[in-house]
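Input:
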Amino acid sequence: MKASAYFDFCQEYKAEAIADSLRRGLSALNLEGAVKSGDRVLLKPNLIMAKAPELAITTHPEVVRAVAMVLNDCGAQLYLGDSPGFGSLKHCLEKSCIQAVMKGMDIAMVSFDEETTNLDPENLIAKKLTLAAAAFKYDKIINLPKLKTHSMMGSTLAVKNLFGFIPGLSKAKWHLRAGHDRHLFARVILDIYKQVTPAWNFLDGIVAMEGEGPTGGTPRHCGLLALSDDAPLLDYLVEKWVGYPELTPLSQEAQKLGWLPDEKLFACGPAADKPLFPKIKTAKGADQATFPGQRLWRRFFVKKPLISRSRCHRCRVCVQHCPAQAMKLVDDKIVIDYKRCIRCYCCQELCPYGAVRVGYGLGFY
Ligand code: SF4
Ligand code: SF4
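Output:
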């Protein structure tokens, strides 16, 4: 029986070692022919915001270099793009040190600003889906997610990384449409996956993020590289490997759709049978039940975003990106209208100063 994923240990960000691991994985999964000579290949790392590699917020530049080395050997032409949650792509590439790799490896930058809209009645939720046109302009997409926890969705792995194909501020619209219902939001992301299916997914889990991810958590050395051509299966297996207490909404929805058949739920490779210990620390917002439409429950029992008075720089990034327009700057303080707040935790995700925490309280800490 063929394994669904290849899990390998890699302790350091050294491109040669990472490339060797990737080659072993491609061979083990019979994916060596997935990219052919002359293919135009789009790399999609996690570039959520402009941060340095050691913070474990973005895909590490040495992983990008290693993938480019392997794909150059295949004779592919390489492109790289993303739609960051906040800030310009160029700035994110500079800060993440990926730009330097792109120059050295002849990888062209692709903007996700141009949009295209597809109608698909077969989609689960998003019958009309506007995505970056770049998603459909290349022969292959290679997904390069980072292993991170996520306050709203539990984790951000291969499938969630594809949310970056939603251009710019349209991301907030989908958050607003899903509201507090993280299972509905999961189905939207699975709709994106149906439209934009990567040829393979190579997860950077050498240094992951635990705790208050995807941007405010703590780097955690896990030493994992994981490869698969099936993003939902990869995510399920990685969630098991890092020791999530329960499946995330994305994996639960993929399971309901029959996308995780029992016979495919196993990985091969040196790390496959050696799960992470101690288990990864989850985000505080990740273990909550969903109470769709029940505003009263939500106000009292679902953890909310709290603002640090001392850390907040009043930059208003959170105000500009809050999907529910629940945040305001009043008397030089950020104030949240919790009746409007849909608990998407985008404010925590995008705050450049780590000033937003998820918990119970009066609105500040
Ligand atoms: S909470 Fe963060 S994003 Fe919002 S104004 Fe303060 S520093 Fe800026
Ligand atoms: S206040 Fe924060 S958690 Fe609430 S809706 Fe706005 S961005 Fe989302």
